[in-house]
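Progress report, Aim 2. The chain analyzed during this reporting quarter is listed below.
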Amino acid sequence: MRVFIILMFLCLFMASVIIADEKVSVSEPCLNVYYFRSNFRCSNCYKIEEYTKEAMEKYFQDKLESGEIVYRVINIDEEEKVHFVDEYQLYTKSVVLSKLKDGREVEYKNLQKIWEYLNDKKKFHSYIKEEVYSFFNEGKADQ
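Predicted structure tokens for the chain:
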């Protein structure tokens, strides 16, 4: 009887793992959205991070969940991340869009107007939405 119960639990466990694997279908990322920060952070730095995260989750939740878009906060003061400063010509806290094809970056854009819209949450969200949407869909009709 014990063997039967153990086998039954094992079968149920394996079935749940198989079902879970079928539901999780992660796409290869097409776009990375980076917020670059440093160790020193002022109230505006926190606000940029907060507004960017909110906009990404509000307008691109489905793409984030599928893995087509990846949002990351990166501390450029960490030794292994300092290379981003040169790669993206960073001079301050920034939001950068990085388009990928076959796992390699093919284009990037620094969203410099985040500083202009910092005191208007609605405009900030709209700017992130429009830029990400445009950058994500650019060239897709040609494919």
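Helices lie at 2-23, 43-66, 83-87, 121-137. The domain at 31-137 is CATH 3.40.30.10 (Glutaredoxin). These observations will guide the mutagenesis work planned for the next reporting period.
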